[in-house]
Specification:
The protein has 126 residues and is mainly alpha-helical. The protein contains 6 helices and no strands. Helix content is 68%, strand content 0%. Helix 3 packs across helix 4 and helix 5 crosses helix 6. The chain is rod-shaped and about 85 Å long.
Length: 126
């Protein structure tokens, strides 16, 4: 390739995919997530502009804020699934057994009920 030829984004993408033998998404994932390269080191290694590196990183949701948002969403989905599993057999309308009792078991029952209700609320806020 001669120095005076400017490559388009598509040509850069095709060149990188050919060199690395992977899609640009896989290449970017390895560089950003697995190797933790920033836009300066990553763009230098790929032989592209910092702006193009950031564009591809954003396009494939690999930027720091995007990755944090993805992790938060995964965590939320796991929590919702856990709540659903825990509440599957729970009847929230069941009678309170130790209602008029001032004891640790009465306190425990009230706390368990409050937790069940809060988990149910968490499932409703999707």
């Amino acid at each position: 390739m001669s120095d005076d030829k400017i490559l388009t984004n598509k040509e850069h993408k095709e060149r990188i995919e050919k060199v690395y033998g992977n899609t640009i998404k896989e290449v970017m994932y390895k560089m950003v997530v697995e190797r933790n390269l920033d836009q300066w080191d990553g763009s230098k290694e790929l032989g592209i502009s910092k702006e193009l590196f950031v564009k591809w990183r954003t396009q494939h949701r690999l930027g720091p804020m995007q990755r944090a948002a993805n992790l938060a969403e995964q965590h939320r989905n796991k929590t919702i699934k856990r709540y659903q599993d825990e509440l599957e057999e729970v009847n929230l309308n069941r009678k309170i057994v130790y209602k008029n009792e001032t004891s640790l078991r009465g306190f425990k029952e009230m706390i368990e009920r409050l937790l069940e209700v809060q988990k149910q609320k968490g499932l409703l806020i999707k």
